Amino acid sequence: MDISTQRSRWGDADLLRRFVLAILIMGIVGTGAELVLLEHMEDFWQWVPLVLFVAALPCAGWLFIAPGVASVRVFQIVMVLFVVSGFVGQWLHYKGNVEFELEMYPSRSGLELVWEALGGATPSLAPGTMTLLGLLGLAVCFRHPGLRAGEVRNSQEGT
Q1: Cα–Cα dist 31/18, whole Å
Q2: CB 102 within 8 A of CB 117
Q3: Under the phi-then-psi rule, with left for phi > 0, alpha for psi from -120 to 50, and beta for the rest, what region is 122?
């Protein structure tokens, strides 16, 4: 099937939505592989992104194959969890770096401590990848045509 046939079948917005979803899946697989290679599995909090990645892949597949109200809503929930986990991860990485810096250099404080903690051994901003992937996933769902099926059904039930 050539690109012009796909355009007429899905429309430009749907084609772009599927392309962004494919990019998101690549990001999930790549980031998940990196976390596994880094052995990011020492405690509960380190398992959170891995579990979310494993949950997101079938949800993304469901959204791709059968875009409807349920698949969009479940995918949105998982993507919101990505965003939240990204912020929590950034806080945990930063907090761990602050604790390490204070053990090594108890006199550090203020901006110097913040700067050293941001550039510490644990990459403080790396969990922002979860936030980025979550926002990308939410962009996929923005005005998703699968949600219109629910609007039509609700309006018919109300009449």
Answers
A1: 20
A2: no
A3: beta
Model pTM?
0.84
Write out the chain's pLDDT in tens, 159 residues: 555 554 455 578 889 999 999 999 999 999 999 999 999 999 999 999 999 999 999 999 999 999 999 999 999 999 999 999 999 999 999 999 999 999 999 999 999 999 999 988 888 889 999 999 999 999 999 999 988 865 544 444 454
Chain position carrying tokens 């405690």: 43
For residue 102, give the amino acid letter.
L
Contact 88, 54 (CB under 8 A): no
108-134 burial, b at 16+ Cβ within 10 Å, e below that, comes to beeeebbebbeebeeebebbebbbbbb
